[in-house]
Amino acid sequence: MKKDKFSILYVDDEEINLRVFRSTFEDEFDVFTATSGDEGIEIFKQNDIDLIITDQRMPEMSGVEFLKQIIDLNPEPNRILLTGFSDIDALSSAVNEGKIYQYINKPWDESELKPVIYQALESYYIKKENQRLTNTLQSKNEMLEAEMAAKVALLNQLKLSEHELRIAKEKAEESDLLKTSFLNNMSHEIRTPLNGIVGFAELLCMDEYTTDEKLEFYKFIDQNSKDLLSMISNIILLSQLETGLIKARPEIVNCKQLINSLLKKYDSKLQDKQCRLKLDCQLNDQEALIRTDVLKLSEIISQLLDNAIKFTDEGQIDVKVSKENDRLIISVKDTGIGIDARFHEVIFDRFRKIELNRNKLYRGNGLGLSIAKSYVTLLDGNITLKSVTGKGTEFVLDLPYETASAVEQPKQQQTKLIKGAKILLVEDEPDNISLIRSIVKHENIELVVATNGLQAVELCRQLPDLDLVLMDIRIPELDGFDATRQIKKINPELPVIAQTAYAFEDDIEKAKLSGCDEFIVKPITREKILKYFAI
């Protein structure tokens, strides 16, 4: 906004000139006067000056020299030079260095000077107003640019969010499809063995079938029961892995012996195939003794062998064990159907079951490799695969190698009873009691039954000749953990084997801490029971 009065600084070494200037212009302007350049500079520094008028010829500092210093302080106000002689050099310097708005010859005349002052002030005002408008426009432009940048950023974020939402939607849809496929597959995988179990169990009760036929029926029931149990175990195991209930529990194991025993177990699955298993263990006896989680390592290798055997009808399955620096390398290589390259990234995903050949469908629920991968992660390892369609697949397991000293040996089975032993069965389910009775009926084993924890503790106190306690964990009055603790106080040497439907690792660890010597996961089989007897 234009000021009520403009301010003028007039510098002249002659006081009379200053008085005349003040008397002439002080009604219209705020007039500041100085008798030297130095004084004028100080006034300029301390006041808002709109126009500077200076005499050229002054002692100590000329008008041009004064104006040069004024320009250094603020070049915006206009400058008028008063000169009493026609010195072309002084005028040139005033124009070039002092950058004057105009010069006027002395003695000045009001009629001549006043219009120049008005023009200089108007020019200055216009220049200031233009600068103000320019600054305002620039500020608004910067604000608009900032708003535009913010809107562009928001638009980009919206586009990114839209992209992420689209990906999330696609993943959700894929997940729903996978889960739907999984549920449909699970329905098929559960009902298929159940159909065999229920159907053949019904036929076993019919008299028109021969003993040999019923034996075949039993084999079908047995295999389908094992398949169903394996599938349910995998589902429970998956839920445990998702909730973080499973931890690594390292112990000493001879990995060569472990893998050999697994291969022997899988030999029977190759009877109907033109395929064989081969082990190449490059570890010596001492190197084969390692510290790791035995159950998890066994499960990983089992899942890989299951996968290899399922998809290999002929050729060979090679298991190779080696050591590279501080890593244990185990590979399972088959000559089966292979895995298409586009599925290599998703083969370890849960519920993922890849079947491109609709002419041949393979049993399975798509959880095995996912469980194997989760176990590998728990053991701080890696698992990779190489595969070519139609030529086979190789899974390579890379685990930390922690050697065991020569004096450390894997734990050996300690609980071994002789025929004629007396066993206390602690169980509250009548069907389970009948099953155990039937298992030991022909083995010359005396069975004593307790249906709750308190009764079990009392029987152990009354019967010092007991050889073994089969302890169910979930029983009334006193649970199996507390009952075992009290029994161990009565007879610390009496073996107690926990038998329960709870297959969580925490339950196994809790059973060991309570004093249980070993742990049997239900369902109880004749093989699981009689392995503890030297019969």
Walk me through the structure.
- By secondary structure, the chain is an alpha/beta fold.
- Among the domains are: 7-108, Rossmann fold, CATH 3.40.50; 253-400, Heat Shock Protein 90; 422-530, Rossmann fold (3-Layer(aba) Sandwich), CATH 3.40.50.
- Helices cover 48% and strands 19% of the residues.
- The strands form 4 sheets. A 5-stranded parallel sheet has the order 2-1-3-4-5, with helices on both faces.
- Strand 1, helix 1 and strand 2 (30-34) form a beta-alpha-beta unit.
- The radius of gyration is 49 Å and the shape is rod-shaped.
Helix-strand layout with pairing:
Blueprint (H helix, E strand, L loop, with lengths): L6 E5 L3 H11 L4 E5 L2 H10 L4 E5 L7 H11 L4 E6 L4 H9 L5 E4 L4 H95 L6 H32 L8 E4 H13 L6 E8 L7 E4 L1 H17 L3 E11 L2 E7 L34 H11 L3 E7 L3 E9 L21 E5 L3 H11 L5 E5 L2 H10 L5 E5 L7 H11 L5 E5 L4 H10 L3 E4 L4 H5 L5
Parallel strand pairs: 1-2, 1-3, 3-4, 4-5, 7-9, 13-14, 13-15, 15-16, 16-17
Antiparallel strand pairs: 6-8, 9-10, 10-12, 11-12
Helix pairs in contact: 2-3, 5-6, 6-9, 7-8, 8-9, 11-12
Give the structure's gist in a few sentences.
This protein is an alpha/beta fold and 535 residues long.
